[in-house]
């Protein structure tokens, strides 16, 4: 029998598996409970918090996508962050995490740390040498990675940091939300992958969901067990929608990635931009590592405007296509102001340490035709430039 590629297996997840009716697409099993076959003899599923046929197809597909042994599908991306921490850590354990990670992850680290359960230490993983030295001294139990980072798209050398993490006995977890298919964390040495499924995996901005994917069966069993114990598992209806989104992940991503390159190329010399953050730029400090460990540079970018917050406001008012909204990875293009939106839960000190300024805007490049995106973003930049000029005249 022909051995098909992993991507084909993901695209065809659950197709032609319905023996009852012969449905091509797997049906949605909303049922919360399942009859026992007979007294004392459960079937494969008994109660949807513990297991559900629709969610199981999605779990297998996401494990296949990342090359892991199994996946636990939970209600939100933050649920996936929480599940991985609670399942892996013991009281007193130490976690090293990126100083510029997603604001919600930062908040859960801070708050669990404040309760005294574990110790969380912020590390700048974009500086491989100093991060490695810090890890050797700290000897954390868990190393948390997120690369490219959010919102400044700093790059971590995943293979190098994972090797040091293992050397000191840590479990290495990577949040791969920004780069499904493009970055293969298990091949780079990571033990556990976390996703906000909400983003590219679902891809249509109509579901909030998370996944914890384990490289080994023992970790996969651990996460499944804790997912049920803590009651974090996702709804079957959401899982059904995500399965639909997942089938087009590869084709959607191709357009997202092409568009991001085209937009960056069109705006990179615009005078309204002070700093443009995109790992595909040769001037980006993480460019070479990104080129080595990613098959593309992703579809997220951010820039800091010369005119600061006023210019950011003018930009947002001037654009029509880029919707002012949190989240990313949907078909529609979005702009976010990290300081007041995605990263508002960080203290001003933490924002400043992470390099988040009032003039910074973050973009999720969608799949609309590139020429429309370029026209719109250029109109926004022209308006931002005018705002900066007015400020200069006043000063
Ligand atoms: C990198 C990253 N990880 C985790 C999350 C949390 O996911 P969710 O919003 O699905 O809970 C997000 C959300 O924006 C994110 O960007």
Topology summary:
Layout: H1 6-11, H2 53-66, E1 70-74, H3 77-88, E2 94-98, H4 103-114, E3 119-123, H5 128-138, E4 142-146, H6 158-167, E5 171-175, E6 192-196, E7 210-214, H7 217-230, H8 236-246, H9 249-267, E8 273-277, H10 287-293, E9 300-305, H11 308-318, E10 323-324, E11 334-336, H12 348-354, E12 360-364, H13 370-394
Parallel strand pairs: 2-3, 2-4, 4-5, 5-6, 10-11
Antiparallel strand pairs: 1-7, 6-7, 8-9, 9-12, 11-12
Helix pairs in contact: 2-8, 3-7, 5-6, 9-13, 11-13
This protein binds pyridoxal-5'-phosphate (PLP).
Residues 76-78, 102, 104-105, 146, 150, 175, 177, 196, 198, 208, 210, 327 line the site of pyridoxal-5'-phosphate.
Features:
single chain; 395 residues; alpha/beta; Aspartate Aminotransferase, domain 2; 2 domains; 7-stranded mixed β-sheet; 12 strands; Cys/Met-Metab_PyrdxlP-dep_enz
Description:
The protein is α/β, with parallel strands linked by helices and about 400 residues long. The protein folds into two domains: about 5-245, Type I PLP-dependent aspartate aminotransferase-like (Major domain) (Aspartate Aminotransferase, domain 2, 3-Layer(aba) Sandwich), CATH 3.40.640; about 250-395, Aspartate Aminotransferase, domain 1 (Alpha-Beta Complex). The chain has helices at about 5-10, 55-65, 75-90, 105-115, 130-140, 160-165, 215-230, 235-245, 250-265, 285-295, 310-320, 350-355, 370-395; strands at about 70-75, 95-100, 120-125, 140-145, 170-175, 190-195, 210-215, 275, 300-305, 325, 335, 360-365. The strands form two sheets. A seven-stranded mixed sheet has the order 1-7-6-5-4-2-3, sandwiched between helices. Strands 8-9-12-11-10 form a five-stranded mixed sheet. Helix 9 (about 250-265) runs parallel beside helix 13 and helix 11 runs antiparallel to helix 13. The radius of gyration is 22 Å and the shape is globular. The termini are far apart. Pyridoxal-5'-phosphate binds next to helix 3 and helix 4.
């Amino acid at each position: 029998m022909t051995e098909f590629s992993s991507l084909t297996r993901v695209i065809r997840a659950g197709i032609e598996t319905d023996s009852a009716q012969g449905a091509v697409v797997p049906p949605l099993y909303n049922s919360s409970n399942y009859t026992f076959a007979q007294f004392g003899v459960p079937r494969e599923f008994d109660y949807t918090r513990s297991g559900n046929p629709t969610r199981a197809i999605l779990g297998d597909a996401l494990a296949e996508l990342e090359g892991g042994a199994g996946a636990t599908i939970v209600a939100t991306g933050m649920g996936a962050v929480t599940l991985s921490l609670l399942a892996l850590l013991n009281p007193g354990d130490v976690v090293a995490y990126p100083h510029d990670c997603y604001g919600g992850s930062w908040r859960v680290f801070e708050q669990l740390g404040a309760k005294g359960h574990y110790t969380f230490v912020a590390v700048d993983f974009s500086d491989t040498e100093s991060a490695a030295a810090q890890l050797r001294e700290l000897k954390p139990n868990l190393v948390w990675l997120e690369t490219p980072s959010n919102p400044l798209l700093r790059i971590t050398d995943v293979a190098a940091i994972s090797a040091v993490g293992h050397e000191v006995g840590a479990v290495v977890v990577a949040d791969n939300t920004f780069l499904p298919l493009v970055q293969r964390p298990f091949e780079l040495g990571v033990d556990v992958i976390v996703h906000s499924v909400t983003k590219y995996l679902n891809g249509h901005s109509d579901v909030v969901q998370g996944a914890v994917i384990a490289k080994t069966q023992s970790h996969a069993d651990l996460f499944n067990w804790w997912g049920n114990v803590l009651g974090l598992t996702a709804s079957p209806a959401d899982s059904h929608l995500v399965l639909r989104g997942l089938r087009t992940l590869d084709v959607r991503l191709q357009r997202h990635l092409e568009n991001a390159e085209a937009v960056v190329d069109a705006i990179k010399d615009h005078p309204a931009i002070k700093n443009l953050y995109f790992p595909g730029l040769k001037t980006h400090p993480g460019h070479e590592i990104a080129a080595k460990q990613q098959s593309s540079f992703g579809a997220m970018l951010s820039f800091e405007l010369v005119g600061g917050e006023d210019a950011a406001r003018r930009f947002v008012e001037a654009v029509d296509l880029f919707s002012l909204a949190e989240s990313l990875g949907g078909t529609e293009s979005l702009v976010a102001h990290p300081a007041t939106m995605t990263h508002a839960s960080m203290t001003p000190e933490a924002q400043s340490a992470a390099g988040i300024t009032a003039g910074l805007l973050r973009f999720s490049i969608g799949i609309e035709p590139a020429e429309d995106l370029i026209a719109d973003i250029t109109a926004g930049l022209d308006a931002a430039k005018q705002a900066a000029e007015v400020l200069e005249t006043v000063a």
